[in-house]
Amino acid sequence: QVQLVESGGGLVQPGGSLRLSCQVSGSIFSVNYRGWYRQAPGKQRELVARITRGAINYADSVKGRFTVSRDNAKNTVYLQMNRLKPEDTAMYYCNADIEFSEGTYGTDFWGKGTLVTVSS
After folding, report:
1. ∠49-91-80 over CA atoms, to 5°?
2. Could you read off the pLDDT of 65-116 as tens digits, one per residue?
3. Nearest-5° angle of CA 45, CA 46, CA 50?
4. Is 16:118 a contact under the CB 8 Å cutoff?
5. d(Cα 119, Cα 45) in Å, to the nearest integer?
6. What is the C-alpha to C-alpha distance for residues 103 and 106, in angstroms, rounded to an integer?
7. Cα separation of 81 and 19, whole Å?
8. CA distances to 57, 71, 98 from 103, in Å
9. Which of 75, 115, 72 shows the shortest CA–CA distance to 93?
């Protein structure tokens, strides 16, 4: 079964860094990562970074601190998070469209998330 799997979360002190990863488990033809999102306790899911063909757009709250990168050979997308703040505490999710075989697509896939806790 094809799934998106996020990893790399954990407990970090304010000002620290974490790098999250998102990759596809299972055999696929290609993946189009659409973005990273997060959901804090008691709040709605919000966009962290939107990935398009030509650009990555960051939420104002993370601009200058978070960076998205991709390893195409590994079909993996990363979210480097620096200068973390307590308000960054949330479950982080990636979102993608997946091409299972050439010309056969599934859209709007979500992983189960990885928890980031920023606390002293």
Report:
1. 45
2. 999 999 988 999 999 999 999 999 999 999 999 999 999 999 999 999 999 9
3. 130
4. yes
5. 21
6. 10
7. 6
8. 28, 22, 10
9. 115
Longest CA pairwise span in the chain (Å): 48
Q: Which amino acid is at 53?
A: R
Name residue 36's amino acid. W
* Number of residues assigned to the chain: 120
Pick the closest to residue 97 from 77, 73, 115 (CA basis). Answer: 77
Of 73, 94, 78, residue with least CA distance to 19: 78
pLDDT digits (tens, 9 = 90+) for 1-10: 889 999 999 9
Tokens of 54: 């030509």
